[in-house]
Request: fold
Amino acid sequence: EIVLTQSPATLSLSPGERATLSCRASQSVRGLLAWYQQRPGQAPRLLIYDTSNRATAIPARFSGSGSGTDFTLTISSLEPEDFAVYYCQQRSNWPLTFGGGTKVEI
Amino acid sequence: EVQLWESGGGLVQPGGSLRLSCAASGFTFRSFAMNWVRQAPGKRLEWVSTISPGDTNTYYADSVSGRFTISRDPFDNTLYLQMNSLRVGDTAVYYCARRGPNWGHFDYWGRGALVTVSS
Reply:
């Protein structure tokens, strides 16, 4: 099983600041990594797929990068609605696995 | 517009059974891999099961293999999860999710159904 480790667990920032979230895989995921946003009481929403592709209707302030085992989600300038929990997920191997999440808080 | 809507959640005793349903609309249901993903209170997301396009293959997490069964009815665009021998540790919100084209990531999600296993 591929284990995904996210850091930091919590990121405390202000609106307008830049957020950088990390996801490290226990083995290569061949770029098949996604990022999801989950607001309290809501279902997850796909933000980025296959490392760097923005999903439908996702604003350009969200970007993804990385390769091999190390990946980054960057939010260039935080909006109030961006304060949420973010999960990475790999589809390289069964079982599909998620990271433990990073909470972006004000 | 793609929509997914779960139903069938509730309270069940340990050892009991429950069947979740997910009504799908807005896309060609049989052409996509469909999935169940769960989230225990305060915990990370956990993939549970997948059924392939055309229903040729099913996949399960080790934690549910042998107890849960995924299936779909292509005639009424409904995904199912039959859950037997339920345990306290199965308590979670269960989400129905579609994988994108060519076995992509989870691109659409339902709002979730709460399953509570407790005596």
